[in-house]
Design goal:
alpha+beta, 30% strand
Length: 210
């Protein structure tokens, strides 16, 4: 069980997403330097569940994902620009002292076996997303091809990644994004995303009815 450098964020990052970062805090410059010394430079990213990371006192979630550094620019004076790709899901087993940066003992956490995944249920979620995009567009008097927003989300042939991609393309709160990320099984991830779409749709319909 490896000890990983960790980067708490106000966003629940999902596997497959791109994460650009500007690094200027000394402790995170040290984190980047540690990572770049490794053959596969990576660090863990978790959602800040409460509080703010700056200044300490934050409450960190225990499920996240690895951010693989794919490009970096050293701007000098401990400043870096990073381009990262989110990869494997991880689970924090133990938080360690933030010395010199946040660290945790983690394990890779692939999806657990579960109920069969109904592809039709994912297609239904897609359809509801498209309907909402087009409902908003019509209300605003603009033309939007809602189907284009979700096009290619299932191109990997992996149901889990399909769900992550759909989640990344739909405007929802961080708690809902985290629920999708932290679902133990793919079937439970379908349910979490479906619930999130229902919640957002109800909020939008209420706002549009005013």
């Amino acid at each position: 069980m490896p000890t990983m450098p960790m980067f708490p964020l106000q966003v629940a990052m999902l596997p497959g997403e791109e994460l650009p970062l500007r690094i200027f805090e000394p402790r995170y410059a040290a984190l980047v330097q540690t990572c770049l010394a490794q053959p596969d430079p990576a660090f863990g990213v978790v959602l800040i569940a409460a509080g703010r990371e700056v200044g300490g006192g934050d409450v960190r979630s225990d499920v996240g994902a690895l951010a693989h550094i794919t490009e970096h620019i050293d701007q000098g004076d401990g400043r870096y620009r990073l381009k990262c790709t989110m990869g494997e899901r991880i689970r924090v087993l133990e938080w360690l002292p933030d010395d010199p940066y946040p660290r945790a003992v983690v394990e890779l956490w692939p999806d657990q076996p579960g109920a069969p995944v109904d592809v039709a249920a994912i297609r239904d979620i897609e359809d509801r997303m498209v309907a909402l995009f087009e409902r908003i567009a019509a209300k605003r008097g603009v033309e939007v091809h809602g189907r284009g927003v979700v096009a290619g989300a299932d191109s990997s042939g992996d149901a889990a990644m399909w769900l992550y991609t759909l989640t990344s393309r739909f405007p929802m709160g961080q708690a809902d994004r985290y629920a999708v990320l932290a679902a133990p099984t793919v079937a439970e991830r379908v349910a979490a995303l479906s619930d999130a779409v229902d919640t957002v749709t109800a909020m939008v319909e209420f706002q549009l009815s005013d």
